[in-house]
Amino acid sequence: MYPKAERPARPSSALAGSVTGPDGAPSVGPLTGLNEDWRRRSLAAVWHPCTQMKLHAADGAAQPLVPIARAEGVWLHDFEGRRLLDGISSWWVNLFGHNHPAIRAALVEQLNELDHVMLAGFTHAPVVQLSERLAALTGLGHAFYASDGASAVEIALKMSAHHWRNAGRPAKCRFVGVAGGYHGETVGALAVTDIALFREAYAPLLRLAATVPSPDARAAGDGEDAAAAAERAAAALADWLAAHHAQTAALIVEPLVQCAAGMAMHHPRYLQRARELCDRYQVHLVLDEIAVGFGRTGTLFAHQQAGIRPDLLCLSKGLTGGTLPLSVVLSTDAIYAAFYDDAVARGFLHSHSYTGNPLACRAALATLDLFEQTDALRSNVVTAARLAALFEPLSMHPRVRHARRQGMIFAWDVASSLPDFARRYARHALEQGVLLRPIGSTLYAMPPYVISEAEGEHLATGALAALEATLAEEAAGHMPTQGEVDGV
Ligand SMILES: Cc1ncc(COP(=O)(O)O)c(C=O)c1O
Questions:
Q1: How far apart are CA 231 and CA 225, in angstroms?
Q2: pLDDT at residue 58, rounded to an integer
Q3: What is the pLDDT of residue 57?
Q4: Is the pLDDT of residue 475 over 70?
């Protein structure tokens, strides 16, 4: 990963060598030495994702770029022995901690047998075993693989429209998504993403998709609860589908939590109504569980809390426990059957070079083993309740709004006159040794499931201290830095 000569001495244990502990003392301070070197070289050579590079420039005051040398458990270690608690599971991918010995061992074993083989015309044990296990877990028996979440969304959209074409209904080729929805940033996925910051520059490239109101529980009116807000959004969906179903191939939804919309959470009633409406109007229900799948919301898959099954299910991120890129679209027998034919052109002629990569599939199998071996869903109930208690002082803070939780996802909003308040907040969190990310005026924590009580305390006290530090900055009348910011 980096030249050996420049590798810092490795602390004798995961936590030794750190200048901080759960006492909240600053752990990412001004960058020096090796950290500064990697930062400078990265800024010269790497175009970082989802980033206005200028915010990293100069002294990095607006948005520091943090070099990471290695990671273990919930900790990210820099090049000089300091560490950060990965409070967002590295963009929501990590489940059982970094560098998990069981996943690492499975990968090494797989590497000794088969690194890669193309999946068109060939097959291999890890992809077969993974497909069988995912089918048993979801009731969706046909697994089509890709690498990233956005590619899975592209596949689901193409599969849906092509299914209707094969079924003799080519007019059903449009899509409808939910306000604030996020499904990735390739051109097809971006077309069903409703986040202006990501869309605007590419609007001329995007095929128009419709958007229906979000069931976001924060939008509940006076006297309304989350279930009523969900019913109201479902009624709007019903009106929309009644008018447009003849041209609509699929509805795409992030079940229970619209993460990139600022961890907008909704009642499972919305999913039940969406399922009924999609059945009534012959529209596919595509569930995007790329962010919320694999236990994040409390059940293995979020849609299980609504007691429904989608027509197409997109999975990625946690699928490999956060080690390698892999995504999959699982489909019903009915959709699969529409492609099964003598005519080649009626088949699903989509491919990616690394589709079903054996290493990634093996990491996914090891991840599924960990769910079974550690009884993770049950222990997450305890971990999440413990974290919720630790977060209570933050949730009760007079400046915090809509403190909310769904399973192992914690989020809170802070209203401020500073347009970049949340970004400043995240920067102060880094100074507390905690990685949090802002989305609009929302901050959230989505830690790996293996977070211990002491680590949870470090996360919660760091998040509270960072809030106080940002409020002090606001009170001191700091001017906003460049632009409003968001990102995920
Ligand atoms: C719900 C959802 N769908 C799709 C994606 C896109 O996944 P990827 O970034 O792997 O392309 C994301 C990424 O955050 C997501 O949260």
A1: 10
A2: 64
A3: 82
A4: yes
The closest alpha carbon to 421, from 373, 369, 479, belongs to 479
Residue 32's pLDDT is: 61
The predicted-structure confidence for 330-367, as pLDDT tens digits, reads as follows 999 999 999 999 999 999 999 999 999 999 999 999 99
Does residue 424 sit in helix, strand or coil? Answer: helix
pLDDT, mean over the chain: 91
Q: What pLDDT digit, counting tens, does each position of 106-143 carry?
A: 999 999 999 999 999 999 999 999 999 999 999 999 99
pLDDT at 207: 85
Q: Which residue has the tokens 């509270």?
A: 464
CB-based contacts of 303-308 (< 8 A; 24+ apart in sequence):
303/255, 303/256, 303/271, 305/256, 305/268, 305/271, 306/255, 306/268, 306/269, 306/271, 306/272, 306/275, 307/268, 307/272, 308/271, 308/272, 308/275
- Protein residues whose CB sits closer than 6 Å to any atom of ligand 1: 148-150, 153, 182-184, 254, 259-260, 288, 290-291, 316
Q: For residue 320, report the distance from its CA to the centre of ligand 1, in Å.
A: 14
pLDDT score, position 415 = 86
Quote the ligand 1 centre to 30 CA distance (angstroms).
Answer: 32
DSSP 59: T
Helix (H/G/I), strand (E/B), else coil: 248: strand
pTM: 0.92
Of all protein residues, the one whose alpha carbon is nearest to atom 2 of ligand 1 is: 183
Percent of the chain at pLDDT > 70 equals 90
Provide DSSP, 439-480. Answer: ETTEEEE---TT--HHHHHHHHHHHHHHHHHHHHHHHTTPPP
- Residues comprising the chain, all counted: 488
**Distances, alpha carbon 164 to alpha carbons 153, 222, 238, 476, in Å:** 17, 42, 21, 59
Testing ligand 1's pocket by substitution, the residue of 145, 317, 324 carrying the most ligand atoms inside 8 A of its CB is 317
Residue nearest to atom 9 of ligand 1 (CA): 149
How far is 394 from 170, CA to CA, in rounded Å? 52
| Domains assigned to the chain | 13-99+375-475 (3.90.1150.10), 101-374 (3.40.640.10)
Of ligand 1's atoms, which has the minimum distance to the CA of residue 184? 6
Residue 61's pLDDT band (boundaries 50, 70, 90)?
low
Taking the centre of ligand 1 as the mean of its atom positions, its distance from the CA of residue 448, in whole angstroms, is 18
Q: Which atom of ligand 1 is nearest to the CA of 258?
A: 1
Pocket test for ligand 1, best of 145, 183, 252, 314 (most atoms within 8 A of CB): 183
